[in-house]
Amino acid sequence: MTLSMIWGVKWDDIQNDILDLARRMFTAILVLIFVGMLIGVWIASGTVPILIYWGLEILTPKFFLIVVCLTCSLMSLMTGTSWGTVGTIGIAFMGIAQGLGVPESYTAVSGTDVMSHVKYMLWTTVPSYLISLIFFFVVGLQFDHGSVETEEYDQILISLQENFNLNR
Question: How far apart are CA 140 and CA 61, in angstroms?
Answer without folding.
Answer: 6
